[in-house]
Design brief:
Layout: E1 2-8, H1 10-16, E2 20-25, H2 28-38, H3 43-51, E3 53-56, E4 59-60, E5 74-79
Length: 85
């Protein structure tokens, strides 16, 4: 298990109610699942997370790679779609 820092931007931050949070996970899929589980009573949060673009170390993370094992602690930025761009 590794420490994953989730950094929320714009509407994702509003949905999460925090700027960042840390979870323990072995993959990014597990990290996102943990964040969703912590807000199981708020299905809106899960909808926002599911449409976010994900960046790790400044690089886009394709959703097909979320289940890959993490090599160490990491930070992931969640960026919701922005109007006009």
């Amino acid at each position: 298990m590794h420490r994953v820092t989730l950094r929320y931007w714009a509407g994702a931050r509003a949905a999460a109610g925090v700027e960042t949070e840390q979870v323990e996970a072995s993959s990014l899929a597990d990290a996102l699942a943990a964040a969703k589980a912590a807000r199981a009573d708020d299905p809106g949060f899960a909808r926002v997370v599911d449409v976010c673009s994900l960046l790790s170390s400044g690089r886009a993370v394709h959703r097909s790679r979320l289940g890959e094992p993490l090599a160490g602690d990491t930070e992931v930025e969640l960026l919701p779609p922005f109007a006009g761009g």
